[in-house]
Recover the amino acids of this structure.
């Protein structure tokens, strides 16, 4: 698969093809930086607002993991059985990092492991090494 129609259209006339993993990562970045309710046709698309000061840090982390898993299950059909785990960072309390592990189908139709890390900083999400 060469990515979504949007991915292919935004690559320009050079005809550069986005690989499947890059397409998935780009879609996840878009999805995880969207607040639920922002897409009128899909009210549950994106992440809910988890800025509830009454929750402990551990509960916020647990809810983030569950919300990311739910988004992937509902809106990224190329990934199956996604599991999200918190990955502690040493550089600050205001950042949270998560490791996403799932299975995806390769070009031969075989299920292969897929892994990616993200760092959430307020309303920003970025891919990590």
């Amino acid at each position: 698969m060469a990515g979504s129609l949007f991915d292919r259209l935004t690559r320009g006339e050079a005809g550069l093809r986005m690989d499947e993993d890059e397409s998935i990562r780009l879609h996840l970045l878009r999805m995880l930086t969207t607040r639920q309710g922002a897409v009128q046709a899909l009210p549950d698309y994106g992440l809910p607002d988890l800025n509830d000061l009454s929750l402990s840090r551990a509960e916020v982390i647990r809810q983030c993991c569950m919300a990311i898993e739910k988004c992937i299950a509902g809106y990224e059909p190329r990934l199956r059985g996604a599991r999200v785990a918190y990955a502690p960072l040493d550089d600050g309390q205001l950042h949270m990092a998560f490791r996403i592990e799932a299975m995806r189908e390769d070009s031969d139709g075989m299920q292969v492991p897929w892994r990616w890390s993200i760092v959430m900083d307020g309303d920003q999400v970025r891919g990590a090494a």
